[in-house]
Amino acid sequence: MNPKFYIILLFSIIIFSCNNKGSHIGNNQKGNHLINETSPYLLEHAHNPVDWYPWKDEALKKAKESRKLMIVSIGYSSCHWCHVMERESFSDTTVSRIMNNDFISIKIDREERPDIDNVYMTACQVINQNGGCGWPLNAITLPDGQAVWVGTYLTKDEWLKLLTNIQSVYAEDPNELEKWLGPLIIN
């Protein structure tokens, strides 16, 4: 065979055997609490610098015990804006620092948990009566899961501003956010 063929083959093997898993900003080599999940969507977020939890008792218990607000972020693998928000916000070290320090962050695949997606989509529709609900569906909730804010894609700057504003209100007076609750009670 032609020696050029072997050189090209060797070069191709070297190139394709390298991966870009370390290319994310703030890449979490160890992985977060999603690392052992089976959902492809959740696994896409397993190496974000955000310390994501799946929707399980561990995360809900931690939120209640720590008295931290929760971020519930719901999406699915083929959602364009879910991937944009993951790239712009959830892979950013400034955003992840705030999310990790001040919130318990939960990531949900809506195709695995349509029941939870339905609850927070209903909350979004009640809170935002003019519409504007879709995916990614992001909720900021009290430690018991009651939504105080629900919306969709936000730019990194909008997301940071929202997180800092809500956390500031909560730090000053945790009971103040209860006034934000709509008529929908989530249990």
UniProtKB/TrEMBL annotation:
InterPro entries: Ssp411 (IPR024705), Ssp411-like_TRX (IPR004879), Thioredoxin-like_sf (IPR036249). PROSITE patterns: PROKAR_LIPOPROTEIN. Residues 32-179 form the Spermatogenesis-associated protein 20-like TRX domain. It comes from the Bacteria. This is Thioredoxin domain-containing protein. It comes from Candidatus Defluviibacterium haderslevense.
